[in-house]
Amino acid sequence: xxxxxxxxxxxxxxxxxxxxxxxxxxxxxxxxxxxxxxxxxxxxxxxxxxxxxxxxxxxxxxxxxxxxxxxxxxxxxxxxxxxxxxxxxxxxxxxxxxxxxxxxxxxxxxxxxxxxxxxxxxxxxxxxxxxxxxxxxxxxxxxxxxxxxxxxxxxxxxxxxxxxxxxxxxxxxxxxxxxxxxxxxxxxxxxxxxxxxxxxxxxx
Length: 204
Hints:
The strands form two sheets. The chain has a 13-stranded antiparallel beta sheet, with no helix packed on it. A two-stranded parallel sheet has the order 9-10. It has no helices and 15 strands. Residues about 5-20 have low confidence and may be disordered. The chain has one domain. The chain has about 200 residues and is mainly beta.
């Protein structure tokens, strides 16, 4: 959110070895997704996800661009780009570049040797093989396995619950509700920000 990375506290005032522990995609390659992004009812940007490949061998390209203004003056500018690849139904690699108010962050991650290896602005880390980058389009990742922030490369301290077939809640470092249709396609998102404002993703 920002999948865009994730709709995190930092984000707004706004293949390799295949192991059985890794969550597998259980659906065919989804259709491209476009969302309008709103903060307290005012549109601040858009979030796009484009898919290529088929079924278990999937590439997702994400672009999120947001600007928050006070009157005519921009007070927050955000752009997140991510290229995420799956192979054999599991996460294989990730490359992201994010600019937040002029600050650049980059993350690369790859499945290799029975683990997920991450390199980012904050150093290098090795995570367990069942770890996934946080995204909202793939509800299969919300299985209780570890998630890392694709913007920072750090493990997320969150609790995830599937409260109904179409509704997933994410609580902890961030407060997000994701919604899906009967096919598992991501349809909308709501989130609460540090300043108490509300963010909404509305599919268009």
